[in-house]
Exopolysaccharide biosynthesis protein
Amino acid sequence: MNHVQQLNRLFLLACAPFIGALFWMLAMQTHISLPSLAGSPPGGVAAAGGIPSATAAASQLDKARASAGETKSVIEKFYQIYEQSTAITGDMLKVAAVQAARPAAIYDQRILAKLGQPIRSASSANIDLKLFNFGDDNYNGYALKVNLKSDKAMKLVLGKDKFGSAETTLSAASRYGAVAGVNAGGFADDSRGRFPLDTTIVGGKYVNGFFPSRDGTAFVGLSTGRKLIGGNFSSQADLDKLSPAFGATFVPVLLKNGDKQPIPSQWQTSPARAARTVVGSFKHDQLLFVVTNGNDESGNSGATLAELQARLQRLGIKDAYNLDGGGSSSLIFDGQVINRPSDGKLRPLPTHFLFFR
């Protein structure tokens, strides 16, 4: 039920007693007894043929006028009460809206206290984006906090909108007119092209079927309710229960319900450090995308997954997932490449998360 429907329903409930009282008073007070044609009314003098006297008729008219005046007064009082109740209800709704927004605002302030001041931002009826510097002594990068306000705010797209094709995140964002973009799932190359890794959903449809999780692979995406969903799934039915709107696949899961998940040994050492892209959600469902820099693919620069896992947990992230990293890590904002790609330039990729004003 939307806000307009809620308001209409509240007005109907508030006014029902007054409307009922009005109908009752109208029924009780507007009844006029017509004089009898068979004889003289009490207190009157009958004229020829049994017609009521002028005095009796005038008395009945006076009573009718008095009754009509009282009814008019009741109606005027009803509308005064209605206008007063409407004003009071409007004030109550304003207060309720402020009170409802207060916990989210307080929570936002706590997040900002940990992330610092944003270096860039964008806001519209669809989305609020805030970009932050993000790092510590061992790595540096950026964090993009995303508050999705509508279903039009975010989507997953294929490279050049074709299965097996690839393009940079900057190219995809430019084609779609997106305000920001982040690389998404992993990929596999063959002689036919560059294909998304395993389960990929675009616009609510499976691009190439469902693939059960293997070797820790995890689906990562958004539900139709704009909530971050993901994890290991053995059947399509299990994933469908979460109503996925879009998403891609990579490895591993970092946090579930605020708890650290085991990081597979190969992802602790191969490479130990790298450019990374991870995504997480706060308890109020806002998203945080983190993209860290790495100088090259040697494993000697960038962040470890354990470092990012611990940092996200301290920030109050509820669920978090690793996305494709290394040379794939890409962060675009307002038509500019924000991160430093470890390949020295952006890598063409088969899937991208895009954000819209």
Summary: The CA atoms of residues 204 and 245 lie 4 Å apart. The first helix runs from residue 3 to 29. The chain is about 35% helix and 25% strand. Confidence is low (pLDDT under 50) at residues 43-47.
